[in-house]
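Predict the 3D structure for this chain.
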Amino acid sequence: MDRVKLEAARRSKPFGWSDLIVFAAAIALTVLVVWGAYRRKGASVEIVAPGFSAVYPLDADRTVELETLTVVIEGGSVYVTAPACPDKVCEHTGRIRHENQSIVCLPNRVTVTIRADGAINGSTGQK
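Done. Predicted structure below.
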């Protein structure tokens, strides 16, 4: 490079205001899409455990007692109580209410997942 081009390159800015505006808009759009995809309210809860599988509506309060823990459906949300495992991660997960949220108890092999009725699960292609 000749000296003039080298000096011009040193003085130039890699990003201008228009670049920053486009970058900020792209970040905002990404956040909105991800937030919208994971914030839909669920319609049902699927409980899967060894020897047990059931789907219940979220709008009806009920308590499902399994051998190793208790699943409580209450006020459109789901939570786990009284797990028979040492770490109690499933209990500390708290309440879930949005589509595709899950509570998992690995020692007891129990999963509690919020589903939308009739929606296809994008990760497996199944309902």
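The mean pLDDT is 85.
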